[in-house]
From TrEMBL:
Protein name in the entry: VWFA domain-containing protein
Lineage: Bacteria, Bacillati, Actinomycetota, Actinomycetes, Mycobacteriales
Residues in VWFA domain copies: 3-173
SMART domains membership: VWA
InterPro entries, alphabetized: VWF_A, vWFA_dom_sf
Entry-linked SUPFAM superfamilies: vWA-like
Organism: Gordonia sputi NBRC 100414
Domain of life: Bacteria
Amino acid sequence: MLTSDAPGPRIDAAKTAANSLVDSLPNDSQLALIAYGTGTGTSASEYTAGCRDIRTLVPLATLDKNLVHQAVDSITPRGFTPIAASLTQAATTLPPTGPAAIVLVSDGEDTCGQPPCPVARSLVAQHPDLQISTIGFKTSGEASDQLRCVAAAGGGLFVQAANAAQLQARLLATQNQAAASSAINGGSLRGIAIGNGLQEIRQSHSDFPLGGRRTGNQTIIVWQDCEWVFDATGTLVEIRPQGNARTIDGVRVGGALGEAKHFYGNPVATSSNSDGTRNSTFVAEPDTTTGYRITSQGADDASTITRIVVCGCAPRSSATSSAPASEIIRPFTKSGNTTPGWLKDARHNSGGYYACTINPVPGAAEAGISWCSGSSGMDQGLCAPSFDGHSLLCVTDPFSTTEFIITPSQPPASDPKPPANHIPFGLELADGTRCVYVASRGVAPGNSARPDAVATYNCGDNPLRPTSYVFSDKNSYPVAQSSTGWTAKVGGASGESLRDVAISKVIYVRFG
């Protein structure tokens, strides 16, 4: 949970998701909070103690939201991962009879040697009304298989989350398994996944038809208001839900394409159809070729989703890519105060235009932070409401420790949130150059060698007087990400050729 790829530490994303879940629960809910791996390190001498390091932070009782929030915020992960033992302790916390649920969130597999799947099976045998759900945060391989097995043995829901937005939505989904089971979950629907064979499917779904209509080398079987497409070997290659399909994150037919980008990042492929609609392919599960091919009608992020298809149509992405160092700056608190080490410039704009209209929000790694700017992009940056209730605390340069007090000419949006594939506020290039994201410009600089590219970052010692820019294709992610690292196309506002420069550090903003 200390890995910084959410962006920022995974534990920060997990805390935000857990607190959102707590806020959504009815006030009369019964809840306990248990954490493991918070009291020891990971040295060999601490192994025995670390595998017993399971703490009940909040005993089972009627929900006290403030108390649980404080307990969640106090968690500091640093030890081993005793999943099996923590499940046992969680079960002993619950009443011995009656409906009960355990939700386990982990970013890795058990490191204490006891397989958790048989433990989950035993716990449910002793407590038939117990349900165990698991969430794998950025897990893959053995870790995902282990968590999937625990959920199957516990009669619960298993979901994977690749970013903070997915983690928050999928943690909430564990509270309504009936709705979650009818939603597209990664590469599966109704417990049937891309890559399953027809005979395998019929073993667990006896009413699944044996045959359907042939189209070339494919067979299409209609079942449960959905077309299931098999190749010549009998392997499921596409899932085509009919009607009001939706994903477990809430992306649905009738919704906006921008919601898909919020959860799954920018599409990896796009194409146009003869009827004027457009297909956008998104990665559904990292480190696999499972994707969502989403058809929409209209322009840009506001276009309306008309169809969602699950397919093996995404390029394989690697969870082990060589990403740059990630730094989180925390200039302000949710209560509207500056954090220690930050200076406040009490400069107010005098009735001029200053608004926060961009959503999803670049540069932010947490909901509640807005991107705001004045006319022609003046004083643009990331802002949060001040404690006085009418002004904003704003950071315009991620490499400084100064924030401004600015009075907006109109209230910020009520639900600002970052995109799924968070856009860095600041970049530090391998040659030491510093770059600051710019969302609004009066006159956009161009580069005649790449007239189709747009300047997305100002680079140099002073963001207001840049000596070069980062250029990227319009409506695309501003930097290139690959298994060998991140790079930016850098050049001046002239005809010089753009050069690829490695990125050594990225900076995002969260609340302190």
